[in-house]
Design brief:
Layout lengths: L25 E2 L13 H4 L22 E3 L4 E3 L2 E7 L7 E7 L12 E8 L6 E11 L2 E10 L5 E5 L5 E8 L8 E10 L2 E2 L7 E4 H7 L2 E7 L7 E2 L8 E8 L2 E2 L6 E8 L5 E5 L9 E4 L10 E3 L2 E4 L4 H12 L2
Parallel strand pairs: 1-15, 3-18
Antiparallel strand pairs: 2-22, 4-14, 4-18, 5-10, 5-16, 6-7, 6-14, 7-8, 8-9, 10-11, 11-12, 11-13, 16-17, 16-20, 18-19, 19-20, 21-22
Length: 323
């Protein structure tokens, strides 16, 4: 993959929506200390949109990993998963389901997150909800959150690892003459409605138009209020199901589909999306499973990114992220 000297780049130029320059989170240095226990989850872990756009070939070579990716996968420093956009359709709902993971890391400042959202690809506007995992001392703590950029995330309630989260963001019916709209953010835990709820969110017409440009299902490396990425915890494999936008599959007609992998500044591929299942509504994100092949190739089902060896890649990831 072709990379700039100081940052990993992502493109959404294939989306016929125009390109907007977006803020690129700065990776915190490995030796910096981020005391998560002293930071409010509602104010200090904003979930950022994709970094600045650029070009990423379908099939190419990195120096650190060997993994098969879905065709057209684009790189990000903080996102892994799928995004969709359309030149003709306005997105007014998104759904998704996943299981809260047990995270691991030798660095107890490490965090991880999973969420669904609308906007944030070609627009600065992003409405999202999901889960954040962090360590408080030796204990893992998981929070359901929601966020409306540029405001920081708001915690709703704690949930145990292993809980199945079913989330929905949807627009309520409103008058065509209204200058604002109301949006519902709802979730179930293990198939049951939660006693903790999120109040309906009112958006002005401009913000609603911004979030209507895309929908996402993302595993993220969160950042602090200054845009610095936290240490990414190992969240293992996250299975997203019932992933729909406007009630339709990710690969529904009219959607431009964008698979995204998460790549560190040192070019280590940290999280990769799987191909969509046969229904177009399920996929996984996970650390790459490497092979011993050193040949770059591509096919209709995906692209293979070559590397030095299994051991080199796995050691690189462990050293960077303390897994």
């Amino acid at each position: 993959m072709k990379k700039q000297a100081s940052k990993v780049i992502v493109t959404m130029a294939m989306l016929s929506l125009g390109v907007c320059s977006l803020a690129n989170p700065v990776q915190a240095q490995n030796n910096s200390v981020v005391n998560i226990a002293n930071i409010s989850m509602s104010k200090k872990i904003p979930h950022k949109r994709l970094p600045n756009s650029g070009t990423n070939p379908t099939s190419s070579t990195t120096s650190t990993t060997n993994v098969t990716l879905p065709q057209g996968t684009q790189e990000s420093e903080n996102w892994a998963g799928y995004a969709v956009a359309s030149s003709s359709e306005v997105y007014t709902s998104v759904t998704g389901q996943w299981t809260v993971p047990t995270i691991t890391s030798s660095n107890k400042n490490a965090v991880a997150s999973q969420w669904i959202g609308l906007g944030g690809v070609t627009s600065d506007d992003l409405l999202q909800m999901g889960t954040i995992e962090e360590f408080q001392g030796s204990k893992q703590v998981n929070e359901v959150f929601w966020e409306k950029l540029p405001a920081t995330s708001r915690n709703v309630m704690t949930v145990p690892a292993g809980a199945v989260i079913s989330a929905t963001i949807s627009k309520k019916t409103s008058s065509s003459k209204s200058t604002s709209s109301t949006w519902n953010l709802s979730f179930e835990i293990n198939g049951k409605a939660s006693k903790s709820t999120i109040s309906p969110v009112t958006l002005n017409a401009q913000y609603a138009a911004g979030i209507g440009t895309s929908a996402e299902w993302i595993s993220e490396d969160p950042s602090n209020a200054n845009g610095q990425l936290y240490q990414l915890a190992n969240m293992g494999t996250i299975s997203y199901t019932n992933a729909k936008a406007n009630g339709a599959a990710i690969n529904a007609s009219g959607n431009t589909v964008e698979p995204i992998d998460l790549v560190s500044k040192s070019d280590s591929v940290l999280l990769v999306p799987s191909a969509l299942d046969s229904t177009g509504t399920s996929f996984t994100t996970s650390p790459p499973t490497t092979t011993s092949s050193s040949t770059t190739s591509s096919s209709s089902s995906g692209s293979k990114i070559s590397a030095k060896t299994n051991a080199a890649n796995e050691e690189s990831i462990r050293n960077i992220f303390g897994w």
